[in-house]
Amino acid sequence: MLKFLSAQPPLNLWLIFLAENLLVTGIGLFAGWLILKLSKRPIRPASRTEILTCTGTNLINTAITYLGFWLLQRGYLVFGFEVNWHIVPDFLLLFIAMDLAMYVLHYAINHMSIYNVVHKFHHHYHNPIPIDLFVLHPLETLSFGGLWLITLAIYNFNFYAVLLYLTLNVVFGIVGHLGIGPLPAKLRDSFLLKYLGTSSFHHGHHTDIKHNYGFYTSIWDRMFGTYKA
Q1: Among residues 71, 25, 18, which one has the least CA distance to residue 166?
Q2: Is 94 exposed, middle or buried (0-12, 13-18, 19+ CB in 10 A)?
Q3: I want to staple 12 with a disulfide (CB 3.0 to 4.6 A). Which of 8, 125, 161, 170 is the partner?
Q4: Could you state, in chain order, the average pLDDT of each consecutive group of 10 residues for the chain (229 residues)?
């Protein structure tokens, strides 16, 4: 695959990466819609602003993907492609590292004057639907993208661990913007899941910006006193 991509002219690469981002977005939104449909919850239609912003976010994410591939070609990013036991610890390291980094960035954005310019745009939707995962100010999308590339540049992760992380990133993002808890309360409160960033956990942040800044877990909120059940 890397040989195929490396042989492509820039325009083809851009189109391939754009198609990839749109496909991931489409699958995620369909899955979110299906969950809401099966739960028999009223689903409000996405507004024109949400649709246009989601499209813009995909264009920016395509540029970030293109930059990541450019860095990979020049050795600034290095991946291992072996299928071995390193996949598990690499995934766990990436999952925890990104969760902490995004917690810090999310907390900072919510407590700086830049909030009114950048992050308040996302919080315009107090009762989010899945598409709102992609309704972000361009500067915020670029910030998270830059954080992602910096994390990959610091450590040589296994490529399959990165793919697993990216898959779960979309899953957590869609679940966090359902506005409902798709799992039974008993299961959500189990030892294995109680520290994960559930839909109700992130929904709590949309209704109260002073709490629940974590993305994948509630660990850092519990540790730093920003957790709210």
Answers
A1: 25
A2: buried
A3: 8
A4: 85 96 95 86 84 95 96 94 92 94 82 64 68 86 91 95 94 78 60 70 68 85 85
**Locate tokens 């820039």: which residue?**
10
- Listed in sequence order, the residues at least 6 apart from 153 whose beta carbon sits closer than 8 Å to its beta carbon are 71, 76, 77
What tokens were used for 33? Answer: 């819609």
| Alpha-helical segments (H) within the chain | 2-6, 10-38, 48-73, 87-110, 138-154, 159-176, 185-188, 199-207, 219-224
Cβ pair 144, 105 in contact under 8 A: yes
The alpha carbon of residue 164 and the mean position of all alpha carbons in its chain are separated, in whole angstroms, by: 13
45, amino acid identity: P
pLDDT for res 183:
59
CB atoms within 10 A of CB 93: 16
